[in-house]
Design goal:
mainly alpha; 2 strands; two-stranded parallel ribbon; elongated; about 60 residues
């Protein structure tokens, strides 16, 4: 299986990709909270970032 590659010539390009990934994560977390959810359950692990994000907004979360 081939792995996707991105070749960058400028470090700023790398930072732009990292920033975009963080924005995607925070947008997904915000949508959960904006939906009015008070509890988030997952069959998968919930990472530290999401756990803290939800805790700061009084949303209970639990993963495997």
């Amino acid at each position: 299986m081939a792995r996707p590659q991105i070749r960058l010539s400028d470090p700023a390009q790398y930072q732009a990709i990292v920033d975009a990934e963080w924005n995607i994560i925070y947008d997904k977390l915000a949508k959960c909270v904006e939906s009015g959810a008070q509890i988030v359950l997952s069959k998968l692990a919930i990472g530290d970032l999401a756990t803290q994000y939800f805790a700061d907004r009084n949303v209970f979360c639990a993963g495997r």
